[in-house]
């Protein structure tokens, strides 16, 4: 499984992705699920993936290859809407290429993607691309999207994230959401990839990987766990 | 859908159940999902239900009827283990009675039950009865069980509940877990039924219903929401 979350805020975009993949609980590996595509000038794109690993790896490989080889590619399309449609189309092509009903053995080739970024001339935008290749866009009412094992980590996002949440607070909330999911579900785990995109920067440099030994993450985990327990001691009791 | 949680603690048992049922999102009703069976002397049982409403209503009706009519019934069985087996057997009988493959129209008749309580001679015990009629028991390592739409509300239970959590704190945690689920999922909603069973009391009187206007619940919701946001402002930042 996988858990990824992306948020669209007034000041930019925030991304958090785990890196665990599994085919059954006895076949667990670590693969990066956060990918960036940018030229530093007018195109800055971040892609998060969940679902069939063969499909998502092919998507990323062919997106990169086309930047080198094709005229129409992620760095030439004029709008984030066109980027989402382009990636959705590529997803369908790959799934069609790899679908052979006699040999499928019931394997689901589908995947879900989060695409966030900015192209000069537009504000930053965030899309969720479905396994069918169609897509929806985040709005002020729904400033975040999740893919993969999303339920455990949703309540804290529902309580904290609004369009005006500062980027750094949103990152903290994304990490708590991820930590709750890791605690409750074996198939989501560290290391994490995180990225903050500041509006109009066209820079994808504010990114790093968080390992199980990351001191800042461990400090956050501890402060949250202690803070929650301490908060519980102050909550009003329900009489019975 | 439904969300119910039950906890087995050193001092007794705690139960929280919502009351929303739905057959599709356009057919929503309110039905009680918490049922008690006791004689005030040596048998005190609480049953929480999720799943097919026709099946769970039949189970409760026949359990009550058998207390009046049958020699072997919930008030005469000598152990909670026997009670769980007895209810699981009844569940299978009802599902078999109502299963007619030609007429099923794909409806799932299955249900899940939480059974907690105490019979004199034993400590309080808590069981999860599966749709197959078999069952598992809560232990010190796993002091709570959930049925229905359980993922949204699991992280807070994972962080707070241990076997030594006081009953009143556990109730508060169950209510927060329920509130998180209500906020994230339309098919779970108030009113709630709550019950605290104090070890060796054989009393099922510490129970009440919490409506949408319940002042204590509203105060708890507010204190939790504000406390979480205030805690966020104190959390250490992750540098990028």
From TrEMBL, chains A, B:
Matches recorded under InterPro entries: Ntn_hydrolases_N, Proteasome_sua/b, UCP009120_prtse
GO biological process: proteolysis involved in protein catabolic process
Top-level taxonomic group: Bacteria
Coiled coil segments of this chain: none
GO cellular component: proteasome core complex
Name of the protein in question: Proteasome-type protease
Species this chain originates from: Marinobacterium lacunae
